[in-house]
Amino acid sequence: MDQATIGEKSVNRLLPVLAGVAIQLCLGTAYIWGIFQVELIARFGWSQAAAALPFSLLIFFMSVGCYLGGRFQDKFSPRPVIRIGGAVLGLGFVLASLTTAATPWWIYLTYGVIGGLGMGTTYTTTIACCQNLSTRSAVRALVIVVSRRIAR
Question: What domains does the chain contain, in order, with CATH numbers?
């Protein structure tokens, strides 16, 4: 094996880790819900419970999305699952912006259910991609990808 081949394999192993970090950083936007919750209460006059429900739904449906993402990844491959999951997450977040004071159910559906499914699908598939590297690299990759959650 020559030096160029070794270097190419290193780059090929580094790309999923870098992509995983970038994706995990984007997924972290859901965890700033407290900022939006305060605004929903102030702007729409919602109770604390009504304003907190979208995040609770997102976390619940994220777990459902994690299961689905794992199943779809096994059947199709990680790349399309991550792309579709990211698109579903983005669609849910964009549609959530159409919420009004009279339609709290809309943010429950879009941010909580749709966003949660997209987030879970993308999260679990990204983590699994890094685990598919060799054992030693997988440990390092997981530490790098997941540690961005701890660093906040």
Answer: 17-150 (1.20.1250.20)
